[in-house]
Amino acid sequence: MDVSLPYVVSLFVVLIVSLSVHEAAHAWTADRLGDPTARMLGRLTLNPMPHIDPIGTLLFPLVAMVSGFPLIGWAKPVPVDVYRLRSPRRDFALVAVAGPISNLLLAAVGVVLFRTLDATGGLGPTLDSALFAFVFLNVFLAVFNMLPVPPLDGGNVLAGLVPESMARVIDSVRPYGIFVLYALLFMGVIGAIARPLQIAVVRMLT
Predict the structure, then answer these.
(1) Neighbouring residues of 117: CB distance < 8 A, sequence distance ≥ 6
(2) Which pLDDT does position 144 carry in this prediction?
(3) Which of 15, 190, 193, 206 has its CA at a distance of 20 to 30 angstroms from the CA of residue 72?
(4) Torsion angle defined by CA atoms of residues 47, 28, 26 and 12, in that order, rounded to the nearest 10 degrees
């Protein structure tokens, strides 16, 4: 595994940018659907500072990048008051899916930049690696976050699609979701599911 300083720095910058856009997309969608909570708290911004969690956004990703140890990172969750949404269950699902969609859009932009620069001969090894990381990381963030496990976005989307009785069951799992995720991660289940999907989405984009 390449753990050179330029690699770690570029991957870390890509992660910060991608997570910031992801969280801003949640905030923007909630605001458009009637809940201004995130906007009023300064979360409707691409500035990374309001979105950074010292442990989840800085420490865990850096340790994972340098050591290869499987750690799950996160940004500060965007606060959403579901009772201020016009259609609470449906709109909360839309707010949740907005984050992964923003990562797919970023990945598509990365592909366009890659092709444009490649056609003009403007790609060097460093920029090539950075764009490659940009596309793959954003696709991974989209795929991983759409896994139907609360508190991931996919769990919130699922809760908005199923009958209310099942949604309550999903919500009851939420406090234990991080433990479920780590169990699936160490068992190799997440990699077995996310990796093929990531590759398939990248192929579709390219």
Answers:
(1) 123, 127, 131
(2) 95
(3) 206
(4) -20
Per domain, the residue ranges of the chain are: 5-205
Q: Is 23 one of the catalytic residues?
A: yes
pLDDT of residue 66: 81
Closest CA to 188 of 82, 87, 43, 70: 70
Tell me how far the alpha carbon of residue 145 is from its chain's centroid: 5
Surface-to-core class of residue 173, CB atoms within 10 Å of its CB (0-12 exposed, 13-18 middle, 19+ buried) = middle
Mean pLDDT (the chain) is 90
Q: What's the pLDDT tens digit per position in 62-76? A: 888 888 787 788 899
Amino acid (one-letter) located at 135: V
Range 166-173, long-range pairs (CB < 8 A, 24+ positions):
167/89, 173/149
